[in-house]
Amino acid sequence: MTLILWHGTGLAVMTVMLVTTCLTSLVMVLCWRKPPLLALAFLAFFGAVESFYFSASIMKFLEGAWLPILLALILMTVMLVWHYATIKKYEFDLHNKVSLDWLLALGPVLGIARVPGIGLVYTDLISGIPANFSRFVTNLPAFHAVLVFVCIKHVPVPHVPPSERHLVGRVGPPTHHSYRCIVRYGYRDVHQDVDSFESELIASLAEFIRSSSRAPNGEDERLAVIGAAEVDVEAECVKGKKKVRFLVEEGAGAGDQEMREELEELWRASEAGTAFILGNSHVKAKPGSSVLKRVVINFGYNFLRRNCRGPEVALKVPPASLLEVGMVYVV
Fold it and tell me: Where are the domains positioned within the chain?
């Protein structure tokens, strides 16, 4: 057993060193802007030395060097299954998203009520209305007075400054009180607790309402970068509860009056509380799919999903404010 681990460790270390040398030569050309001849000389010198050690480790394949290759194949299979099913889920959401006209048509005529509070609908889509929200409204004909479609994206940078974290836009006219917010995190950013996340999101919405210009048709779906730290808020504590009022400059214009009414509606909704609406998905392969696809989707991905932490845990959503919408994805 010790010999197997010894040969396996040697092959793993030499493979990492050889791959690192190859990638470093690419970084020298693409990122450091060094001459290609210098990168080629670097690769030829260090790559040749490491290739000798790598070939010697390969010769020990049957004596234990197969172990890291087997572990790498297992981990790669797990990541490929997860990636494949995730892409299929996103394509399903993309093809089944609901139009804006459908959302704007919801109202008292159809028996749809607007209840007090803010509804945060989590989705992977950056445009359109997700299918899980249509399922939510179909089964429970009511949604919140202020509706926010939240999309969390991880960008390939270490940190995203707080002033650039939120991209905010409208979904429909201002009177509908529906918004879209894309929240961006770097790969080294730490997710905030739910109270900080909620307060910064509401502050970003308030700043967007104050700074957004009215489109000619009354709708504006463009996204704007909003810094929550720039919002002026007035807070007071009453009986242990924190009340937040958004300060609005006095003005006589019609635009100022609309802005004040929109901010007051946002404030009333924040006082009523926030509900987090997440999709609880089950993925199935289409009838007639290949045996490999059925095994990957019906068994492999669903097994991984059941044994991984849910999005409500990753997003730190309190159970008392969580609304889960069941969805079956046929991919």
Answer: 2-64, 94-278
